[in-house]
Structure formats: structure tokens, C-alpha cells
Amino acid sequence: MKHLPQTFALLLLAQAPLSHAGLFDALKGSGSPVYTSKLDKLDGSKAVVLGGFQVTFLLKTKDSAIAKNTNLFGRQASSDFAQVGINAKLEGVPEALMQQITDAAYADLVSDLEQRGYTVYTQQQLNQSDAWTRLKFTGSPSYTANAVNQGVNLTSMLGGLAKSAMNSDPQQVTFAPTGMGINSAAIGVGAYGNVAKELSAPVVMARYEVDFATFAKDTDFSINYLRSVPNQVGPSMDYEASINLNQAISVTPGASLSFATGKSGISHIPEVKLNTPVVVGGAYGEISDTTSGASKFANALSSTLGAFSGKTSTAAERTITANPAYFEAGALKALDEASNRLVAELPAVN
Questions:
Q1: How confident is the model at residue 97, as a pLDDT?
Q2: CB 3.0 to 4.6 Å from 279: which of 55, 74, 219, 326, for a disulfide?
Q3: Strand 119-121 vs strand 246-251: parallel, antiparallel, or unpaired?
Q4: What's the confidence (pLDDT) of residue 128?
Q5: Residue ranges in the chain whose pLDDT is less than 50
């Protein structure tokens, strides 16, 4: 593990907060933490069909900071700036563990819905619907190159990116519970509506995204994993790399429960969605500097030239190698709280 303070980067942060940090702060102060829509359409529903459930795990994320100063390096020029960027990568979390986390989160959502008073239809009951058996799903897990701008669910156009490149350098991976498939883009509220009609119950589509780092100290919970996870030995860890890269496991804004009621029109689509992230702070692994030699050379050259031009740009890569048991504990905590917040907004069944 390398603990690498970077004075220049930290000085920049004091002058210009990270865009990611600003986003988190803005979301935190933007009103209700949960967005709700058309939930009155669920009134009278005593059963729901959990027809879609998926958890996306980010494997890479990034952020940058830029500081502009009219007196930078003693010069009077408004175009002077200094920019620093960081790419973060997650390692040490095997597919089998992500599947295990997804299965546990699915069971937790079922339990939350049942505690709210709903009867949750099983996969066996779903298979009795002709409309359900006609639907097609993507296999699980599914890797993609880049469909997310960390922290918020913003779809990114991949353009002509080759499929081989997507497989060799994945940015994220999505899992469905064991025995289920992943909702494809073609399967939406309309397709599930026919299932809702046949089973006389709304069909729920649940989506979550798990991030592994933040770029600001913005947490809802903090876990000392050494004390919280049984049978762990070694020193308690508390690491932080430069540019305020923090170890924190979160469910990002946009996690949602959407309902197909079987009635046509967007006015009959109830939904609950997180406006703010659920962030679990705590060191769950080790951060190491994995910046390439080429990047380090470019950084040094930029710094040298910046003394004359007033413009500098540096980039770095950090890898967080997770303790699997710690990562599982943090991810499940974040997913559990996300489900709690979403389900709490649904009409209670008496």
C-alpha cells in the first residue's frame, strides 16, 4: 500500500472543490432524498410481482479539479489554470462475491416489501404468466465499457467502440439474482404491463448502482470493518489518496423501483427513486499508485512547461484493492439502506 500525499493537488482542492464533491453537495441539499411519482396508482394493491432486479457494480471511476487564478505563478492572465485528474479502479472483488451481494440484496428487497404488507409473487408464480414466458432477458453478468458518469445515472454514448475493447477494459458489470436475467432495453413498462394484467398485480422493476469510491467526504455511515466483520485480523485501515479520493461504498442517485400497472399511459407508472446517494464510509481495502510511466513523464513535462505558460495538467491512477469481506459488508449496508428508503415511500398495505 502506498500513501501518497500530493501537495499541489491538495492545494488545488482548497481553491476549487471537485466537481464530484459539488455534485454530492448539490444533491444533498436539493430537497427530498427520494423522488416519488404516481404512487396513488398503487393504492389497493396487496400483491406485487418482482419481475426485474439488477445491481450494477462500477469497476472504474474518475474525477478532476481545475483551479483558475489571475495571479497564478505571479502572472496577470485570466487564462492561467492548473488541472489535476484522477482515475480510480477497483480490484479484489470476484464475480462470485458480486453475485452473492446481488442475491442478498434481492432477498432483502423481498423482505422489505413483505414487511410493508405486500405479497411478493415468486418466480414460480411468474412462470405461470404467458406474457412473462414470452419476454427475453440478457444473460447475467453483463459487462459494459462505460454507461455511467459516476455518482449519477447518465448514459454515455459509446460510438464505434469495439466490443472486444468493452470486454477487455470494462467500466462496470451488472448482475441479476441467480436464476434471473437482466432487463434489456427493449423490456420496459409496456412489456411488463401485460404480465401485470395477467397476474392482477403491479410488476416491480428494481435497479441499483454500487460505486466503490467518492471524491468528497460525504458519508451516511462509517464502518470500521476490522471490528464489524467477524474473524478478521490485522491493523484497522484508514487510507486516503491525493485529490480527495476516499474509500466509500455507495448506492448512487437514480436507484429506483418502477411499477408496471397494466394500464396504459405514463400517468399510470408509479416510481420511487433516490435523489441522493447512500454512502458508507470506511477503509475496506488498500489504495496503491498505478499511474503509468508515460503518465508520470507527461505530468513532469506539464509541470515544467507550466512555469512558462501558466497552464498545467496532471493525471494519476489509483487502484483500490478490496478486502472481499469488507466490501461485501459495505455494499450490503448501502443496498439495504437504499431499499429501506425506497420501500418506505410505498403505500402501506393494511
A1: 98
A2: 219
A3: unpaired
A4: 84
A5: 1-30, 64-82, 146-168, 217, 239-242, 295, 297-313
Element (H, E) at 219: none
Question: Residue 172: exposed, middle, or buried by beta-carbon count in 10 A (0-12, 13-18, 19+)?
Answer: buried
- The confidence score (pLDDT) of residue 223 equals 75
Q: What is the pLDDT of residue 85?
A: 66
SS3 labels along 132-186? HHCCCCECCCEEECCCCECCECCCCCCCCCCHHHHHHCCCEEEECCCCCCECCCC
Is the CB of residue 36 less than 8 Å from the CB of residue 271? yes
* Contact criterion met (CB below 8 Å) for 153 and 253: yes
Q: Which residue has the cell 469495439?
A: 162
- Look at residue 74 and give its three-state secondary structure: helix
Query: In the 8-state DSSP scheme, what is residue 240?
Result: B
Pair 66, 297: CB distance under 8 Å: no
DSSP annotation string for 26-57? HHHTSS-SEEEESGGGGTT--EEEEEEEEEEE
Cell of 84: 489535476
pLDDT for res 31: 65
Contact between residue 282 and residue 330 where contact means Cβ atoms under 8 Å apart = yes
| C-beta separation of 284 from 331 below 8 A | no
pTM of structure: 0.74
Compute the distance between CA of residue 282 and CA of residue 239 in angstroms, rounded to an integer: 9
Burial annotation 226-244 (CB, 10 A radius, 16+ → b, else e): beebeeeeeeebebebbbb
Q: Helices 324-343 and 95-115 sit at what angle, rounded to 10 degrees?
A: 30
